[in-house]
Write a structure and sequence with these properties.
Elements lengths: L8 H10 L21 H12 L3 E5 L6 H11 L4 E5 L6 H5 E8 L2 E8 L1 H8 L2 E5 L13 H4 L4 E3 L6 E3 L5 E6 L11 H4 L2 E5 L5 H11 L5 H19 L10 H11 L4 H8 L7 H14 L2
Parallel strand pairs: 1-8, 1-9, 2-5, 5-8
Antiparallel strand pairs: 3-4, 6-7
Helix pairs in contact: 1-2, 8-9, 9-10, 9-12, 10-11
Organism: Aquisalibacillus elongatus
GO molecular function, one term: ATP hydrolysis activity
Protein name: MoxR-like ATPase
């Protein structure tokens, strides 16, 4: 599916103007397209922001497709995407790289292995920071200078001043209110354009299932679309967690349903991932009403 065919001409021109021919060594880091926006304006606004060199923060529930959106942007701009997956154990080296012992001309030397931040900056590529609000607050200030007008960082391990090459952009993602996350520092958040990414529903979800799963039974596809809508409503009512409404898990269930009965597929892909017995029962009851 060509995402650009329905975009306004001025947005298509922005993509063409900012599309970099990727270095051969980094072709494998260019993401695959496939994200279908719930609203076309979401994609248009992100493209406009990135084309102006602005950082973009994707905010939405788990499984809503934020990582797939980042990969699709990488594909649209033909830009390699370096990634950092945040956790409470994230340290500075996870961003900038680390020192290691190597040998050159028979002599032992200390070499520096660049991390995703340094790689993206030096090559003018995209950096994707997933679940940025999972990182310890004391780790993130290192990237403040990267995210503002300076677009630079002093590597704390080598003292090298690194200035970002043209084309460098930061795309980050957060799951607000998720276990293990912290409130994002306002100074850090202000360095981003914030985009809400919601769950796909209706015709967009139906198309996603057709394009990205092995399921081709029209009746079953429509039933899974309805199941997703019911799960999202249950999430909004506080009856189940966001994990239950994950689009990623739903697609897994659709894939399995091409081979095994749908209720068993839902059990394996969605229900058994949940910890709370009450949540499991809610999903099980919803599936019982839709599938034979």
């Amino acid at each position: 599916m060509d995402l650009t065919q329905n975009l306004p001409n001025d947005i298509k021109q922005l993509i063409d103007q900012h599309k970099n021919k990727a270095d051969t060594d980094f072709d494998y880091l260019i993401g695959e397209s496939g994200y279908i926006p719930s609203q076309e304006s979401v994609l248009i606004d992100i493209i406009a922001a990135l084309s102006q060199g602005k950082n973009v923060l994707l905010k939405g529930p788990t499984g809503s497709g934020k990582t797939k959106l980042a990969e699709t942007l990488s594909s649209l701009f033909n830009q390699p995407l370096f990634s950092v997956n945040c956790s409470v154990d994230l340290d500075v080296e996870s961003f900038v790289g680390f020192k290691t012992i190597d040998y050159k001309d028979g002599k032992q030397i200390i070499d520096f292995v660049p991390g995703p931040l340094v790689q993206a900056m030096k090559n003018g590529h995209f950096l994707y920071i997933d679940e940025i609000n999972m990182a310890k607050p004391e780790t993130l200030p290192i990237i403040n200078g990267v995210l503002d007008y300076r677009r630079q960082i002093t590597n704390p391990l080598t003292n090298e001043m690194i200035r970002a090459k043209e084309g460098f952009n930061v795309i980050a993602a957060i799951n607000e209110g998720y276990i293990g996350t912290t409130r994002l520092n306002e100074a850090l958040k202000n360095r981003f354009i914030v985009i809400d990414v919601s769950y796909l529903q209706g015709d967009e979800l139906k198309q996603l299932i057709k394009d990205h799963t092995d399921l081709n039974d029209e009746k079953l596809i429509q039933q899974f679309v309805q199941l997703s809508s019911d799960l999202i409503e249950a999430t909004q009512q506080g009856r189940v967690s966001e994990d239950a409404a994950s689009i990623r898990a739903l697609l897994d269930a659709c894939d399995l349903s091409a081979i095994i009965p749908p209720k068993r597929a839902i059990l394996r892909a969605i229900i058994d991932k949940l910890e709370d017995d009450r949540e499991k029962e809610v999903v099980r009851n919803l599936a019982e009403t839709l599938f034979e």
